């Protein structure tokens, strides 16, 4: 049990959110650190944090929540007409055609249907930090299922694949386009490539410390070294990736690989989705309503070959209502991160949500507390 005090502010009508966050924090370890932020129709209504070293400006590794920032860039370029969802990937990236991948469209790639979850021999840590190297390796890789016939989570590579399409179409990296069109204009504390000046604000991820019962559940999971899950998470090589500590590597933070290398605060996560779907700080939403509808539409739902269970994906995002929070509106989209972070937009209620935590949560993905926190924020947003 912790005696950590919850700090920060909530708008009138959101007092129950603070109470819910405080109730959760009271059950956590004494060293808990986390942040919670939410906007409704572009107005910040929740801005809370807990932890002795935490604060609103602390930055955390957000793992796969990075994919939300990356694919907001893709959505913008589709909206501009620079990218076309139903063009083949090879239109932009001819080398991608190797090993039977030539018919795959950008739409299918974004929906995790490429079957290109990794390579036969795996990646080094240096390669995982560099989207260009990942893309170069994957161009020659034979897919692990026939492209377009099924789907599975491209955990550590989807941002490199879509990022290469962005680079070929624009001549600039996905990270450069994100900085210019998304992060800098809104001053978002969500970085794909952390500038050295912000390094002192980074709080290194702490590894999961499961209870004996939780460890038994983890041990019971299929752990074959050559499964699709092992390949997707780069666990099938001698230098297997320690996912828990990935953002603690300074090269990963500096380069900001678009699948899992982002660094953010909860303000940054929530602000990203607020900027995407609402007027924020006097600026028009980044995405038009038609683009929000397109990118929030489910494109893959059912059995995920990598996750080995039911998952739903839109275009580059998770279908947040189907995968995580069924009480949200249809078309809610966002992404969670392995250590427990989550960010999403629920366009029907105007809600934009962000949550970060320092210690890797059990069992990975959106931390369990997001369920109660999101529900509390959503109820307040609806005036219930």
UniProtKB/TrEMBL annotation:
> Which residue intervals define the domain Beta-lactamase-related in the entry?
35-357
User: What Pfam families does UniProt report for this protein, alphabetically?
Assistant: Beta-lactamase
What InterPro entries does the annotation carry?
Beta-lactam-related, Beta-lactam/transpept-like, Beta-lactamase/esterase
Name of the protein described by the UniProt record: Beta-lactamase family protein
What is the organism of origin for this protein?
Streptomyces galbus
């Amino acid at each position: 049990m912790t005696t950590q005090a919850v700090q920060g502010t909530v708008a009138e009508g959101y007092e129950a959110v603070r109470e819910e966050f405080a109730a959760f924090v009271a059950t956590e370890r004494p060293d808990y650190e986390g942040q919670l932020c939410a906007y409704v129709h572009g107005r910040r209504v929740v801005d809370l944090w807990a932890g002795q070293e935490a604060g609103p400006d602390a930055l955390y590794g957000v793992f796969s929540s990075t994919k939300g920032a990356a694919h907001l860039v893709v959505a913008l370029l589709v909206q501009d007409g620079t990218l076309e969802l139903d063009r083949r990937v090879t239109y932009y990236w001819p080398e991608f055609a190797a090993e039977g991948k030539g018919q795959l469209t950008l739409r299918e790639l974004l929906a995790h249907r490429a079957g290109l979850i990794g390579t036969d021999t795996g990646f080094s840590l240096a390669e995982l930090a560099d989207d260009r190297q990942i893309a170069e390796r994957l161009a020659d890789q034979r897919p692990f299922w026939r492209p377009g016939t099924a789907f599975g989570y491209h955990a550590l590579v989807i941002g490199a694949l879509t990022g290469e399409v962005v680079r070929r179409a624009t001549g600039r990296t996905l990270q450069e386009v994100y900085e210019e069109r998304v992060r800098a204009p809104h001053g978002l504390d969500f970085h794909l490539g952390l500038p050295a000046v912000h390094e002192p604000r980074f709080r290194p991820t702490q590894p999961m410390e499961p209870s004996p019962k939780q460890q038994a559940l983890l041990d019971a999971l299929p752990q074959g070294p050559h499964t699709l899950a092992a390949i997707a998470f780069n666990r099938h090589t001698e230098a297997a990736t320690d996912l828990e500590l990935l953002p603690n590597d300074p090269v990963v933070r500096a380069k900001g690989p678009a699948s899992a290398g982002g660094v953010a605060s909860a303000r940054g996560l929530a602000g990203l989705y607020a900027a995407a779907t609402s007027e924020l700080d006097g600026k028009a939403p980044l995405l038009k309503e038609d683009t929000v509808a397109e990118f929030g539409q489910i494109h893959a739902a059912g059995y995920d070959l990598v996750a080995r269970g039911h998952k739903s994906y839109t275009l580059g995002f998770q279908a947040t209502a189907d995968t995580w929070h069924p009480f949200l509106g249809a078309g809610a989209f966002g992404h969670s991160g392995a250590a427990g972070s989550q960010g999403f937009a629920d366009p029907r209620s105007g809600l934009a949500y962000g949550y970060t935590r320092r210690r890797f949560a059990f069992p990975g993905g959106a931390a369990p507390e997001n369920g109660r926190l999101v529900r509390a924020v959503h109820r307040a947003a609806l005036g219930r």
